[in-house]
Amino acid sequence: MRIAIAGFGHESTMFTTYETPYEYFHLHRGAELLAEYDLEAILGDWNEGIEWLPTLRAQGAAGGPVEPEAYDRIEAEILEGLAAAMPLDGVYLDMHGAAHVVGRDHAEERMLRKIRDLVGPDCILSMSMDPHGNLSEELAAMVDLATCHRYSPHTDNQVSRERSIRNLVAVLRDGRRPVRAWVRVPLLLPGERTSTQVEPGATVYALAEEASHRPGIIDAGMWVGFAWADEDRNGAAVMVTGDDEAAVTATAAELAQAYWDARERFEIVTENGSWDEALDKALAADTPRPLWIADAGDNITAGASGDLTFALTRTLEREDFLASGLSIVFEGICDPDSVAAAVEVGVGGVLDRAIGATVDHRFSPAVAGPWTVLELVEGLMGEGVVGAVVDNGQVHVSLHVSRVKFTSLDDPSAWRRPYRVWHDVTGYDVVVVKNGYMFPGQKALAASTFMALTPGGTELDFSRLDFQKVWRPIFPLDHDFVPDLAPRILPGITA
């Protein structure tokens, strides 16, 4: 049995000025890619007799739209690798599902269409995705099996990949061709409204896990979709695969209806408000500290540029906060040139330069110095200096060389990706991070949290985003419509 592995992962917000280059992707090939999956542990005796043929997995964390040259280069290498591996019985596709290429829509559909044409209709394709990917009908129709993570934050990154691999091998061993039912659920919801740590997400998305164990069902998935892109495919979806068409259809209908029925309850359950309200909370005497604040409009984990200075600028304008004596650190302003300058002057040296807003200065400009270098932050993976903590006498700012979330390597949501910027924030009254919902490691350190609804590429007030191509009607952009939640049995895959 010959099974290839390939993958492409990116989450592209279209409401930022940042564009993602080829160099931003982490590339795993050959034996290095194969080592990402413990196939002996995943499959046990089933792994005997399988020849695994790893090609390329290109994985980039969220960012702006992908530069066309970068996408074309990745696509070409994947196709070349698959062509060299032919003939194939199956392909495991490690995808994300929310990529947008500058000037092009439907990136994953384009790639999967070429893969399907190459490997032929008899080859079984099993795809794992992030739930914030977009499972369009076109994409679903090109694969035999699809699944996605069931927890947000994604503490089951590896689990969903293992499930996809097991499902693929099980189908190949038994010579089955699964029945596939797909439903578009007209919801456009960000991750900050769909966390599985709270209701209704905790209950709604758990339905997929329960349904996957029913007779006649192989797998059930509930996709959130990606809210910060403007394509006609963006939105939620349900897909159920199995051997019993009646069970598959009924389960897909049940999950889709439960999803839709909960729509009004998908709210931001974390305490939230404007940046000024975040500072007001920090000043309140009864606020437990440290208070961790999410600068949600510049959420790098959803694709924002990570260099917005809106929150920093407004803080420096708040004389009451500056006079309070509260210590604050702004984590994760992406400014590689300023980090390089900090390395040059060293700890204790002074940077007479403005920081931040190197890519996106729509909401506030770079913040003038001088800045004193307090600390140079070494990478956790041995890659040298990756950040610098600087001080202007009023606030501390942690500058980063790249757009990575501020979590330690042992955070349950990290999976195996090199999130490399981390330093001790003990002693600060307020810690500001450039994400939306807090990750497990962040929550463990926070005595209280607040989500600041700041402007930026990941704006949570959709009324301030200019959607042009999203398939309408869709909630919450539209209300008072009756959705079509009838499952579509996808046609058999033919040449």
TrEMBL record:
- List, alphabetically, the InterPro entries matched: MlrC_C (IPR010799), MlrC_N (IPR015995)
Query: In this protein, which residues make up the domain named Microcystin LR degradation protein MlrC N-terminal?
Result: 2-283
Q: Which residues form the Microcystin LR degradation protein MlrC C-terminal domain?
A: 293-469
For this entry, the protein name equals M81 family metallopeptidase
Q: Which organism is it from?
A: Demequina lignilytica
Upper lineage is:
Bacteria, Bacillati, Actinomycetota, Actinomycetes, Micrococcales
